[in-house]
Design goal:
- It contains 1 helix and 5 strands.
- By secondary structure, it is an alpha+beta fold.
- It has one domain.
- A 5-stranded antiparallel sheet has the order 4-3-2-1-5, covered by helices on one side.
């Protein structure tokens, strides 16, 4: 499971890298003070070279996780959409 990124801007838009592959690793799901927290590391690769890694997370009042992998990829897609980053799903 992964996502193909059409273009990712780095360094406040100074550099643009295209044709990337993104995956999720190091998922963490916990509950603190009646808040459900989901977090993971998203890694962006270009030809097997790590270009960028970032932590992405979401906090909700209710448990949103039914299938950890699918739900974390949905959170990643929401994040990418909010940032205006175009992507397509890719099975590996």
């Amino acid at each position: 499971m992964g996502i193909k990124i059409t273009e990712l801007k780095l360094y406040d838009g100074a550099v643009s890298v295209g044709d990337l592959y993104a995956n999720i690793r190091d998922m963490r799901i916990t509950k603190n003070d009646n808040k459900h927290e989901v977090g993971f590391v998203c890694r962006f690769y270009k030809n097997s070279t790590l270009i960028r890694a970032m932590h992405i997370g979401k906090t909700c009042d209710t448990n949103i996780i039914k299938d950890a992998w699918v739900d974390c990829y949905c959170i990643l897609k929401e994040y990418l959409t909010e940032k205006g980053i175009t992507f397509v799903d890719e099975e590996v």
